[in-house]
Amino acid sequence: MSQLCVETRRSVVLPALAVAGTVFTWAASFPAIGFALRQIEPLPLAAIRFALAGMFALAWLGWRRPTTFERRDYGTVALSGLLGIAAYNVLLNSGQATVSAGAAGFIVNTQPLFMAILAVLVLKEAFNRWSWLGALLGFAGVGVIASGQPGGLSFGMGSSLIVGAAICAAVYSVLQRPLLARAAPLDVTALVLVAGGVSLLPWLPAGLAQADAASPETILMVVFLAVGPGIIGQSCWTYALRSFGAAQAGQFLYLIPPSSVLLAWWLLGEVPQALTLLGGALALTGVVVVNRWGKRR
Questions:
Q1: What is the mean pLDDT of residues 22-45?
Q2: CB neighbourhood size of 133 (10 A)
Q3: What is the pLDDT of residues 84-120, one digit of tens each?
Q4: What angle do CA 215, 216, 218 make, to 5 degrees?
Q5: What is the mean pLDDT of residues 45-50?
Q6: How confident is the model over 198-227, as a mean pLDDT?
Q7: Range with the lowest mean pLDDT among 36-40, 145-149, 200-204?
Q8: How far is CA 8 from the centre of its chain?
Q9: H helix or E strand, kind and range, residue 64
Q10: pLDDT band at 1, cuts 50/70/90?
Q11: What contacts 182, CB < 8 A, 6 or more positions away?
């Protein structure tokens, strides 16, 4: 009886901890980037972060020695690393140089809206009235958030760069679907991390030089960014998916943007603007509408 109680408790506690680990590490990445950008420039920050993450990923691949990848998969892996790691983080870091961490968290998490649009353009899926409503709400929310940030949504300004990061994340999610159907998620993630790290190698010397002159707190944030969101967060997310299923687990991701706002308030002293909260609520509502009702006929 006691053994049954222990197993029951474990079956409840471990998935809950996995969800908490996912939400915390992914939400904390936005204020951590904002903190690190005070002493390290956007491209060098991305380079040093994924050089560290790539070392852990190579160790994982050396231990696992995955054999499920085909030769043609490596082109997809390289493109995924270029878009989903290198381009995404360069755009996000550059955008966060002027945009608050909380606002960035809300804008990036409009990724499902861009995935829905890609499904229409590439897979020729139908967009029903709920999809249109959700997309309009989501993009209206992004516009409201951007109006409170320097430069608004003008091309090349911070908010527009973060929208570009969300588009890269959406394309990356679509690209890796065939790989995830044949290989373990952590193996795919490790290979993509290595590919992304290689793409950023030209900026690694500058990253190392700037990190050498940075404070211990900044170095700690860089190490967290290398280990937390990519390795711990992804591992927790994989466990959560297996425990809850994609539909139920996906609902917890809506906690990430408001959590990033609170963490940015605590870590960076960024008091959330009314426009950020209003726009964030609109954007999240749009994502919920598209995910829950947008696929219904």
A1: 94
A2: 16
A3: 999 999 999 999 988 889 889 989 888 888 887 887 7
A4: 65
A5: 95
A6: 95
A7: 145-149
A8: 32
A9: helix 42-64
A10: very low
A11: 68, 69, 70, 73
- Its sign, for the CA torsion 210, 211, 217, 221, is positive
pTM score: 0.87
- Confidence bin at 255 (pLDDT 50/70/90): confident
With b for 16 or more beta-carbon neighbours within 10 A and e for fewer, the 60-77 pattern comes to: bbeeeeeeebeeebeebb
Dist CA 136 CA 159 (whole Å):
18
Query: Tokens at residue 7, please?
Result: 């197993």
Residue type, 140: A
Can you read off the two tokens belonging to residue 184? 């373990």
The three-class DSSP label of residue 294 is: coil
Q: What is the token pair recorded at 65?
A: 């020695």
pLDDT of 130 reads 80
Place of tokens 């211990």: 216
Tell me, rounded to whole angstroms, the distance of Cα 96 from its chain centroid: 14
Q: CA-CA distance, 241 to 55, in Å (whole number)?
A: 25
Q: How many CB atoms lie within 10 A of CB 38?
A: 12
